[in-house]
Structure formats: C-alpha cells, structure tokens
Amino acid sequence: MKYKRILLKLSGEALMGNKHFGIDNERLAQYALQIKEASDMGVQVAVVIGGGNIFRGIQAEEGGMDRVHGDYMGMLATVINSMALQSSLEKINVETRLQSAIKMEQICEPFIRRKAVRHLEKHRVVIFGAGTGNPYFTTDTAATLRAIEIEADVILKGTRVDGIYTADPEKDKTATKYDTITFSEVYEKGLEIMDMTAFTLCNENKLPIIIFDMNKPGNLKKIIEGTPVGTLVEF
Question: Is the domain defined by 5-234 classed in CATH 3.40.50.1110?
Fold first, then answer.
C-alpha cells in the first residue's frame, strides 16, 4: 500500500452524473463504494467536495450579485454535497464524520484539526465542508489546506479526465497525456490543474497531486496500491 492517508478532492459537477443540475444518486453511490474500498484497505480517507452542481460564487458575481455573498452561498452548497456523500457512505456502513469551516452544529462538527486527525486514526472517513470558510478561496485551496493540516501523503483529484494533457483532450485530438510531470513544468507550460493558490501551497509544502478519472471504478484502489493511474505531479 503506497499511501496511508489521502485527501480526495471531488468536484461538485462530478456529482451531477448525466444530469444538468443537482446530484445523481447512482454516481454518488459509485463514489461511496470506491471510498469504502479504500477505507477497508486500511487507508485513512479525508474528502473535500466542490459545490458547482448547485451554486458557484463566480457565477453569482457574473449575474450582478456581490462576490462575497455568492462565495458564502457556494460554501453552503458544498455542505449539501458533503451531507449527501456522508449519507451514502453510512448506508454502506462506513463510519463518517462531517466537519464544516462554518459553524452549523445541528448537522456537522466545526472543523478542529486535532479532532479530524483523531477521527482518521480511528478509520472514520472525514468530509470537510464549507471550503476554507472564507470568500475568494476555491475548494481546491480548501482541499490543499486541509491536506497539509492533517499531513496527508497525497491529494487525489478525481475528475472526468484521466490525467493531465498537453492540451484539452476534448477539443484537441492530438493532445497527449503526461504520466508524470513536475510542478516547475506545470508552471512553465501554463497548464491548469487547480487554481494557482492551491497549486502553490502544494508545491511549497512538498505535497504531490494525482489527477485521475474517478468515474472509472477501481482507479482509487489502484492508486493506493501504487499502480500508475492518471498523472502524478511531483517535485
């Protein structure tokens, strides 16, 4: 087993499945099964989910809404997704704790680093909701920050693409995939993996990132076992 403690970053859009909005229960159940599989292997799993399937702060700003207001609404959307994943995991008997950067005691714990680490040590899946609790920061940054705080071995960014390409593979058929790439090369080539704040935090704290296709069952398990899947961003 290559990794003992992971931070899995999922986009809110990924939860839509084939829908145009909201949560696809089948996709959610598929993700829960993969997380259970990882947990059953003895891996300590933390998760951060975006909220783009429900609401995005940037879209609110484009529509004339105050950016700060919109960002807080986006944070609440991540809590809805986190609650949905928690429910899906608990249905298949995975002990789960949801911690939020914004206090809402009736539905989740406040984020406390020591408590989160203790949950992980007891092999509970910990889901971090509400981003960083601050506007102007993405859930990519929240995922990176939490991964550093809990001393995760790696950030696994589950997407609908199977890695990093020289160009957008959905638009350019000649695009080729990188199996590994360094942080310096990503900067030089101007590749967009996550927002620059999150990416710089990973680089400064020597935290590797793996971009992979979460929609292909078994990929998460393969990564944990050390099988090359997706693209590894290393130093």
Answer: no
